[in-house]
Amino acid sequence: MKCHNGKKEFKCETCGKECLSKKLLKRHMGSHSEDRPFECDICSRKFKRSYEVTKHKKIHQGEKNHVCDVCGYATMHKACLETHQKRHLGDYLFKCDICGKGFFSSFEFREHKNIHTGEKPYMCDICGKAYTSKNSLMAHKKTHEPDAKPTEKVHECKICSKRFKYRKSLLVHVKSHSGEKFLCDFCGKAFSTKDTLKLHRRNHTGEKPNVCNVCGKAFSALYTLKVHQLIHTGEKPHICDQCGKAFTQRSTLVVHKRSHTGQKPYECHVCNRTFVSRTLLNSHLRSHGEQAYYKHSFSVVN
Q1: Most exposed residue of 39, 46, 150, 222, measured as fewest CB within 10 angstroms of its CB?
Q2: Which residues form the C2H2-type domain (predicted)?
Q3: How confident is the model over 57-103, as pLDDT tens digits?
Q4: Are 148 and 168 found together in one domain?
Q5: Residue 21 domain-assigned?
Q6: Which residues pair with 218 in a beta bridge?
């Protein structure tokens, strides 16, 4: 909903929000109603509007047709893909004046600055250990759960407390703190590894060396080609252990399984509504206006 420019003559009597038209006001007022007449015939979740249940059902169908040809990130919405691809081009909204690292989220930017200041505002209420980021604290708190499985050997960054399964991954990550960078000769963006830089440069050169031997479509990243080829083979290697439904990508399976558990780990910072995927959160944020969408910060909830 875009009610940010021009004269606003239609005002909601419940919350005072002003809208540009009667139609937009009517749509907004539905957010105050508890009536949810539209039900998903797969998981029985209910919605206020018909288009919401249509969009929701794509989660079960695994329809993520918009794929990033750089890293393989897939989404249901073209707009979300376009926003994501800005990460590869270095078109950031927030930039650290100490190390030059860029961010799209003000929340991520604030947490990043804790690395430089040494501040650790997220403290475990069980053992008192503190962390620079909320995600690091949440990962740590799982070790206190009664049914927690014995943790695998992890390698933790002494600077920001981020943890990695493999030591090699930690060493690559540490370079982001040390200032060791590989610079793009086109745009000046810096990367911690030569391979990441090589992949990024293809955004500028248009190089797509990974070609599908079935249809001839080309991709800049090998991973994206492998995901694409599943379309031709019909292979769906990721299977839900609860209902047996199969998916081509693990990320789609992860989101699907939340329809069984009811988990909604992505929270809107404007209205606190929660969602099963970041894609749905991004789509929802547009209802709060473009500024909320592009400058959003999200938190992960239990």
Answers
A1: 150
A2: 10-37, 38-65, 66-93, 94-121, 122-149, 155-182, 182-209, 210-237, 238-265, 266-293
A3: 766 665 667 777 666 677 777 777 777 777 666 666 777 877 777 77
A4: yes
A5: yes
A6: 211
Report whether pLDDT(2) > 50: no
Rank 84-88, 215-219, 295-299 by mean pLDDT and report only the highest.
215-219
With 0.70 as the threshold, say if the pTM is over it: no
Pairing of strands 130-131, 122-123: antiparallel
pLDDT surpasses 80 at 159 = no
Is the per-residue pLDDT at 3 higher than 50? no
- For 200, other C-beta atoms within 10 Å of its C-beta total 22
